[in-house]
């Protein structure tokens, strides 16, 4: 299996090379040359498998330079009993007759990023070994909230790696920031950026393409790699949980073999919903892909119009992990819908870099509209949805998941489509205690980690152990950098 750059199909890499490198040198994203198909009986075969077994089954065709025994060992370490608080790893909960919630927040950092970032370190270190790489990988991460902690935890004290996370100052929740600042490990670094997530993400991409900086770091014994979803090693494990969710519904006789389900995903960077599309390409009977945005609705506008325009007001919302105006993984989807025209993709990405906008061709726009639906909601609607789900279904969700539930309700009302739907729940509500409590009618909100106990007292729902334990850790001093000085932060980290 070879991987090609979205901006240069002639650049081919084996899986281990693509994962180790993270981002193509031309700025493109590595994508499989072809997508393997599940056998006709594959979903039935996986019905009774554990999540770990399903992960190996799904990932192996994409990773033919890895052995089954290697992937089995990785899956055991990534998704073992000591890492997730439920046996199922990614359980599917029924909310009503036609709505199911895929809970992806039962891992060590209580967010869906754990599903990939518990696996990626093993894929990366395995890739480095296969490539006979003697330098240390410096993992650069830009986070809008959840990726940072999940990456820090995943790479904590992993041999031959160092990891530096950039996050937007004042652009994550208090709990998200505390999670990062209390991270343990000798190889980890955290730095706030004066600006928003797009500033942090653009800065990281700029560092990746800085040849002079790469040369300096090479002399020090380092090379750059990525733990963001621009790395194929992040996207691949995400495909697994869509396959697994469908198998669970089959096993529990909630759906019949071959029956289609829709998927509704709250997304900012487009990676999570992209993985659902890839699962469908493999053969999972997924119907409509419903893209849910918050007030930063650049993806909703794009899917509806074919115009991607980041030149707009940026909003800090109560669903901060979706506060994004540059959705990196959209490039992979455009690559597919442009019939893999790398020249067309390069043109769009150049326009985005230079003018902050582009308009796709009529054919690309039509393919997006055929496959995707899109909607958005503001903070007030998000809070209303949190309250409604709790009052009517006794189901507690975080703001990001609430965005998806709201958009799904609107989609069903407007389309009449009552297809059984999997809503992706991306984070524990306890990562956003203050906003959830306000949504439930609380007027006085506790300070610091006491807010976690307050939400438990209000709802009777116990907090996940990793969040309940935050009160016992002393945060490290927060480092802050201007977006123009991120290179200095890297050089200081890698002295």
Automatic annotation (TrEMBL):
Under Enzyme Commission nomenclature, its number is 4.2.3.1
Domain Threonine synthase N-terminal: start-end pairs: 3-79
The positions making up the signal sequence are none
Extract the InterPro entries matched here: Thr_synth_N, Thr_synth_N_sf, Thr_synthase-like, TrpB-like_PALP, TrpB-like_PALP_sf
- Using the record's annotation, list all stretches that form the Tryptophan synthase beta chain-like PALP domain: 103-347
GO molecular function, a single term: threonine synthase activity
What's in the keyword line of the UniProt record? Lyase, Pyridoxal phosphate
- First-tier enzyme category under EC: lyase
Q: Which cofactors?
A: pyridoxal 5'-phosphate
- Which NCBIfam families does UniProt cross-reference here? thrC (TIGR00260)
Extract the PANTHER family matched here: THREONINE SYNTHASE-LIKE 1
Give the family this protein belongs to, as stated in its UniProt record: Belongs to the threonine synthase family.
Protein name listed in UniProt: Threonine synthase
Organism, scientific name: Pseudoflavonifractor hominis
């Amino acid at each position: 299996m070879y991987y090609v750059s979205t901006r240069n199909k002639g650049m081919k890499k084996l899986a281990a090379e693509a994962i180790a490198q993270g981002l193509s040198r031309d700025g493109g994203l590595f994508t499989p040359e072809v997508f393997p198909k599940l056998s006709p009986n594959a979903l039935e075969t996986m019905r009774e498998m554990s999540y770990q077994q399903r992960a190996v089954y799904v990932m192996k065709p994409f990773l033919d330079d890895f052995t089954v025994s290697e992937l089995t060992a990785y899956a055991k370490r990534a998704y073992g009993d000591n890492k997730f608080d439920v046996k199922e790893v990614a359980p599917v909960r029924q909310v009503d007759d036609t709505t199911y919630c895929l809970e992806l927040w039962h891992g060590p950092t209580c967010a869906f990023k754990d599903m990939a970032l518990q696996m990626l370190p093993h894929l990366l270190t395995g890739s480095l070994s296969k490539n006979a790489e003697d330098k240390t990988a410096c993992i650069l991460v830009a986070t809008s909230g959840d990726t940072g902690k999940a990456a820090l935890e995943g790479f904590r004290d992993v041999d031959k790696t160092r990891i530096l996370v950039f996050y937007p100052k004042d652009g994550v929740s208090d709990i998200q920031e505390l999670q990062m600042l209390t991270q343990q490990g000798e190889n980890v670094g955290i730095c706030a950026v004066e600006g928003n997530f797009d500033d942090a993400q653009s800065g990281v991409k700029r560092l990746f393409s800085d040849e002079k900086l790469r040369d300096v770091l090479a002399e020090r014994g380092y090379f750059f790699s990525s733990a963001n979803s621009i790395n194929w090693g992040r996207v691949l494990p995400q495909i697994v949980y869509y396959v697994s969710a469908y198998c669970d519904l089959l096993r529990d006789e909630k759906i019949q073999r071959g029956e289609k389900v829709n998927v509704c995903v709250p997304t900012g960077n487009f990676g999570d919903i992209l993985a659902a599309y890839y699962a469908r390409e493999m053969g999972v009977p997924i119907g409509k892909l419903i893209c849910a945005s918050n007030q930063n609705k650049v993806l909703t506008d794009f899917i509806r119009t074919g115009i991607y325009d980041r030149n707009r007001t940026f909003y800090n919302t109560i669903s901060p992990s979706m506060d994004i105006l540059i959705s990196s993984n959209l490039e992979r989807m455009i690559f597919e819908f442009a019939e893999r025209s790398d020249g067309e993709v390069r043109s769009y990405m150049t326009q985005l870099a230079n003018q902050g906008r582009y308009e796709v061709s009529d054919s690309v726009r039509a393919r997006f509209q055929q496959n995707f639906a899109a909607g958005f909601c503001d903070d007030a609607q998000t809070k209303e949805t949190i309250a409604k789900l709790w009052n009517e279904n006794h189901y507690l969700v975080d703001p990001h998941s609430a965005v998806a539930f709201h958009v799904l309700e609107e989609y069903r009302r407007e389309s009449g489509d009552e297809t059984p739907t999997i809503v992706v729940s991306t984070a524990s509500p306890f990562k956003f205690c203050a906003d959830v409590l306000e949504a439930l009618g609380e007027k006085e909100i506790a300070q610091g980690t006491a807010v976690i106990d307050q939400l438990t007292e209000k709802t009777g729902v116990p907090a996940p152990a990793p969040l309940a334990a935050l009160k016992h850790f002393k945060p490290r001093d927060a480092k802050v950098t201007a977006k123009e000085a991120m290179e200095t932060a890297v050089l200081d980290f890698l002295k």
